[in-house]
Each structure stands twice: as C-alpha cells, then as structure tokens.
Write a structure and sequence with these properties.
378 residues, mainly alpha, globular
C-alpha cells in the first residue's frame, strides 16, 4: 500500500532518485569515455540524451502555482535561500576539501591563491569550478525566476503547451546562434550569469512538467498492464533515437547533449528523445514500491547533486583509470562498473545527507526548518 503523503508526490521522489543515479553514472562513464573507450562514449550519449531534461520536467511537475501569488521579494528570498545559499555553502565546503585532498579541477592549481581566485571568478561568472555538478542549482534558480515572470500569461493548459513550444524555439535558436557558453572557444566568463541563456530552453521542459501535473499524468496508481508497456516503449524510443541526434552540437568534443554547455543537437530529435527518456523514468518510478529509503533519498536530490562533486572531482578519475587499465573495455563491463560505482557512491552519501539534514538543514535547501545549530531562516 502506498503511504499517504498529501505534501509529496511519491512517484516524483522515486523518479528523482533514478535521475540522480543517472547523474552519478553519467559522470563516472564520462571519465571512462575520456580515456578513449567507445563503449563508454555510446553509454554517455544515451544517458545525456535525457537525464538532465528529466530534472526540469520533474521540477515543473511539483511546482506549486500558489507560490506565484507571493510578492516578488518573498518569492526571491525563498528561492535564494533554498537554491543560492546551498550553492554557496557547498562551494565553500569543496574549497576547504581541496586544501587537504588532490582532485581534478580542470587545470586549476589547488591549493594556491591563483587557483582559488581563478576558480571563484569562473564560479561567479561561468562554471562552478569547485563543484561542477552544482551548476544545476544555478540553472533551476533561473528557470524558477523565468516561471515567476512568465506563468501569469500561461494560465490555461493550451497556453502552457504553446508557451513550452515558444520558449523551446527561442532558447534553441538563442544558444545555437550565439553559443554563449563554450569553454573550447574560451567563453567561460561572459554573459552566462546563472545560466539564464539555457534557462530559457529548459523552461520549456519545466512547463511540460507543469502540464503533466495539471492533467494528472501518472499521479494516480497505474496498472502494470499500462506501465510496463509504457516503460518498454519509451525506453526503445530513446534507444533508437538518441544516436540519430548528430548535431549541430555547440560542444563539439563530446558530440552529445550537454545541458551545461547548451549543446542540444538536432532541433527535433533532442526533445523527442528527452521526453521519451523522461516518461521511461516516470513509468519505472510508478512501478517501483515506495520503499522508505528510496523515497527519502529522492527527497534530498539537491544535497545529492552537490555531493556528487566528491566523486566527480576526487574519486571518478582514479577509479575510471583503474578500470580502463585492469578490466576489458566491452560495453557490458563498462555498464557493470558504472552501476557498481553508482550504487557505492549513493550509499556513501546516505550518512552525509543525514548529518546535513540533522544539523544544518537551513544551509542545504531547507530554510524553513529549525536545526540544533541555526534557527530557521523563513
């Protein structure tokens, strides 16, 4: 029997955990790919074809329309405390970690004054160098700001769909033509504050999530006779379309969808594969029993997103190098090692999530909660 929780949509919490597992897996597979493994490159492109888009769909799915009735000052305060403050906190944590542990920070010489200054400058105006996975927090903040400004004109379901189409076309064209954020071309510090240029495109998928919530898609229990075929069909659509997306990609070294670089690829295959992958995970979540630990971890994806930086910067490069040097390079082996590393990494995060929530929830995205060390901020 599914637990009754009127404040949470459990299928979304479960889907969030699956999405986070794809993030952990994708970042580890990326490291193997960078060691010239073709099997890893194919798996990377498959995962990246939809996994970050899924987060924006899920965010739109749980967006509370009542929050938009708040004055802008109150809305901004809550979003800043629940998004930007955790970003600053985890950036500081990782800066401290670099004093004691060596990791891969993309040619930043750490610890050194120059390395920290360069990293902070890039973090403020470009990419969060000390915890790369935390870029999502900045972008979702921008998407929510766009939502506050735009949604008042998109009240009906028809307008939501039209708005999604318009934002997608505008965002796709804007990023393809202007190529605002591209490290290969030296465009790191520039007009990519809070990734607002890509937030325009991602808002389209956020709106699709709002539409799915309004139409109650997968909110109620779904018969396995519907969910299982839905899972299989959506998975097959991703499988047979992700490689049809051959560009144009802004971030040419990868030739894959990479949202942080606003690299989308084909105008049609990109959203088709992304939405198929999103439905695949939603069907899988609908079929998954709401086990307590699974749901709890899905409710802490902001913390998990930042904790992934520990593995992204410190562990993944070393483990990937060991795997390439000691294991066969076949696709099954790459997939198996990726799954093992993902499960192990997520398991290691559990005690850290507990500690953050227990002692400093206000600094990790929960400003309304009062903890033993700090009072609630809202």
């Amino acid at each position: 029997m599914e637990p009754t929780d009127t404040k949470r949509i459990l299928v979304i919490d479960i889907a969030r955990l699956y999405a986070m597992a794809l993030v952990f897996s994708g970042h580890f597979i990326e490291r193997i790919m960078l060691l010239n493994n073709p099997a890893a490159a194919a798996q990377y492109k498959f995962i990246y074809s939809f996994h970050m888009l899924l987060f924006f769909v899920l965010a739109g799915y749980v967006a509370r329309e009542s929050a938009l009735t708040l004055g802008f000052g109150k809305y901004l305060k809550y979003r800043a405390l629940s998004r930007l403050l955790p970003f600053v906190f985890f950036t500081a944590v990782f800066m401290v970690l670099t004093v004691f542990f060596s990791g891969d920070f993309f040619q930043l010489h750490l610890p050194s004054v120059k390395g920290y200054l360069t990293g902070l400058l890039n973090t403020a105006f470009g990419i969060p160098m000390f915890c790369v996975p935390s870029w999502f927090i900045l972008m979702i903040f921008s998407v929510e700001m766009v939502h506050y400004a735009a949604f008042r004109f998109l009240q009906s379901n028809a307008r939501i769909l039209i708005g999604a189409a318009v934002f997608y076309v505008v965002g796709y064209w804007l990023n393809l033509e202007l190529d605002i954020f591209n490290p290969v071309k030296g465009r790191i510090i520039g007009w990519n504050y809070l990734f607002i240029h890509e937030a325009v495109t991602m808002y389209a998928f956020y709106l699709l999530g709002v539409y799915l919530r309004r139409t109650k898609v997968l909110m109620e229990k779904v018969s396995p006779r519907i969910a299982v075929p839905g899972l299989i069909i959506s998975f097959l659509i991703v499988l047979f379309t992700y490689n049809l997306n051959t560009g144009p990609f802004n971030f040419r070294p990868y030739d894959a969808v990479v949202i942080i670089f606003a690299s989308h690829g084909h105008f049609l295959w990109f959203p088709v594969t992304a939405m198929a992958g999103s439905f695949c995970i939603l069907f899988l979540a609908r079929l998954t029993p709401p086990q307590k630990t699974i749901v709890w971890m899905g409710q802490n994806t902001l913390i998990l997103m930042c904790l992934n930086g520990i593995f992204y910067h410190f562990f993944n490069p070393r483990v990937a190098k060991w795997a390439v040097e000691n294991l066969p390079s076949s696709a099954p082996v790459v997939f198996g090692v990726g799954c093992a590393m993902t499960v192990a990494s997520l398991a290691c995060c559990i005690p850290l999530i507990f500690l953050f929530n227990r002692y400093i929830p206000q600094l990790v995205g929960k400003p309304k909660i009062e903890g033993p060390l700090l009072r609630n901020f809202i």
